[in-house]
Amino acid sequence: MLDELGLAARNHALPLEALRYPITPLGLHYLLIHFDIPAVDLASWRLEIGGRVERPLSLSFEELRSRSERTLTVTLECAGNGRALLEPRPPSQPWLTEAVGTAEWTGTPLAQLLDETGLADDALEVVFTGLDRGVQGEVVQDYERAIPVAEALRDEVLLAWVVNGEPLPPQHGYPLRVVVPGWYGMTHVKWLRAITVVAEPFRGWQQDVAYRLRASEDEQGVPVTRMLPRALMIPPGIPDFFTRRRIVEPGPCVLEGRAWSGLGAVERVEVGVDGGAWGAAELDEPLSEWAWRGWRFVWDAEPGDHELRCRAADAAGNVQPDEASWNFDGFCNNAPQRIEVSVGGAIPRDMGDDSPAAG
Amino acid sequence: MLDELGLAARNHALPLEALRYPITPLGLHYLLIHFDIPAVDLASWRLEIGGRVERPLSLSFEELRSRSERTLTVTLECAGNGRALLEPRPPSQPWLTEAVGTAEWTGTPLAQLLDETGLADDALEVVFTGLDRGVQGEVVQDYERAIPVAEALRDEVLLAWVVNGEPLPPQHGYPLRVVVPGWYGMTHVKWLRAITVVAEPFRGWQQDVAYRLRASEDEQGVPVTRMLPRALMIPPGIPDFFTRRRIVEPGPCVLEGRAWSGLGAVERVEVGVDGGAWGAAELDEPLSEWAWRGWRFVWDAEPGDHELRCRAADAAGNVQPDEASWNFDGFCNNAPQRIEVSVGGAIPRDMGDDSPAAG
User: For the structural domain made of A230-345, what CATH number should be given?
Assistant: First the structure.
């Protein structure tokens, strides 16, 4: 339990009210840092591109930054989002529902660098290696993940050095990180130091053991790749400090939130009250092909206690399930968010005065 | 437990390796947000200064910003830091040891505004009211805290609109917050909307019920005010992902960290290994009168498992106690930080290769 609290302290979630910002302000975007944030000296930092390429490259930060650049608005979610709501709770970073954020990432398309290096005929996957190092599953490792060559050559895959118009802060991968729009966060390797093209499936721990949907430790399981659809709601009204239960005024209450999927455009968001029928929310115009989509729904809040839920569906036909299936590592729990709300009588009006209880 | 995890997700701690930065980068400073981050429209925002003053003021942001400004480097710590290490654990935000950060805050001295308004002869305390609103202890409230007039008139008390050279981000109190150097964080009211001078002791919930050292819910207790001394260490070596246990190479190991106290300058930091005698660390020059002080200590790491501790003492004669006394709300637990370390054999060298396990 203290181990989980230690992880929850250092890995930051998006406070749900920050869903109000289409672009998440720096400091509110979720963070999952497996090991330690490395200290990086830009003068000695280099990006090495090698392996099954025709012309290996070693680039300083300035050399990299002289390449063409592109800015993309991208929603990132942790594959473990929702883990702590599974029972039993798999022991790892104990996310509830808010391990997400959307940022404007600026960098150079990876495809252009791979065009410079050329690829060997047997190139199969592209391995990203970070400067972050530690022990997981009893294996000492640099943090590493791979994607298939076809994914790496997508126009939207960036090596980013700027977020929201600012140089990457340490916690987002200074000086350089990978951005693979549509995929869960584990693939967006931070503190990038090497890109290695390989001819065999990459067997690193974070690929071969972690980030797989499996029923037990002994199973090989299925790789976690793109984000499943999810809608989140800005909790309405005002919160109770400890329980986060919401207090809402009776009457029409505008529920707002954002929804995303890495598998297809969000086509539908629905809101359910007290387990009743789902009602369609109104959708904003998409922010970008790779970012969350705003939605709103007017709820007629009647006095009493209520449970609000929301769910998203995408163009590929995926809908959030009522319950997500348990898995050994607690990935991909995209069951609908539940918000507990008390309407009306719960607010003692005499305590709700706006002026300080001044003497 | 899920309530605690919900708070731990939204309230961010400083990852301990970020102690390496003398000024905490934005996004890594600790955050404790009682209710929700409010949405603020700067065009309609005003600061109202009233109560027991001679000439009340109502200022727009531009009017406020036209006052003289000052920048101070200040360490802020949550009064609940260390709470989750008390047994039994008081149910609230479950901080371990890292609810701290140091920033450069820029704003106008409060004393100058109070000089403009003048104070009535019976002025006793200055109440700060935020725009954040919610329920705590079954009381609906705007977040409010007060300080005595003598504290409010200190040169170092600022109304800050800039942090680390940037406009305040939403989570740090945009557009304006109070900074009271030396005091725990609960006093540095964010999203400030009103300053009210009062002639009687302020009895708001966050003053009269919360932030008091008390043995039970029925006691009045003693107010929490200034930060007790505390030293923190950057955990050496590399971490295990889940337990955060450290793996360190044998041989001389430089331990580094920072120490602070709101009660007097840090005069001494000591490191203890495996419960043995305390050894003196070397201290950096102070960063500012109100900020943490860097320290280092060379430890000869011998193979095996070890426990490292550190503690600070200040010029007022306060030293971190071996154990902090339990209190009902879990405040002020400044018992020494403990870091568990494995030296040597635990690193399987064949797994520690720097290159990706490429096929």
Answer: 2.60.40.650
